[in-house]
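Sample entry (229 residues):
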Amino acid sequence: MKRIVLSAALTIGLCGALVSLPPASGQSGKPAAGAQRSAPPLKIAVIDTALVGREYKKLQDARDEIESSAEASKEKSAKLAEQGRELEKKLHQLKEGTPEYQEIEQKIEKAAGDFNFYKKMADRELKQRIVQAQSDVFREIKATVAKFAEQNGYTLVLQADREALAAKSPQTLGVSLQQPVVRHSIDDITDAVLVYLNRQYDAQQGTKAENEAPSRPSMTPSNRKSPAR
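Predicted structure, serialized as tokens:
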């Protein structure tokens, strides 16, 4: 069965600036005294949301559940189609115009209607579940990045593509050329956010990794840097 891809929309929905924290302000909402004179230095981080989407356990589990449901729907559709073929075999054995022929003919029409209706509803439900899974993970990743940025003092978090930056193939080279030509070494928070999300998800599912301490997952970025270009 063809694998269902749930992470593709994340790259589109999360590209560009993920987090842009506003300058410090007073209770009135106006810039705090001295804010204009001593604006805090811009601290930037990057994150590969496509990689997070591919390796986030919650999205993987959602994909597996949807694939299992889609396989069950496919099997039921096959049974309905087989029932229709069996009725057609019976119809060919009967004389046209007889009461038996008309009865089987009506059953075939009903079977065809049931098949088309079930397939339409199953496809619709599948698409809705995919969109819902993508939407849930989108909001969760964005909220986590915002929390991460606030706790670590990042004023801006940008979308990055590690594979494109590596430019190991003609396809990724084209994407890489769209990245900034010059960029100072900045924090890549992809791994830290992914680890945090997976640990939180494991805790929610009541599972623990082997030899993992029961402490709260860290929201501190790793030492990984985005390569300067």
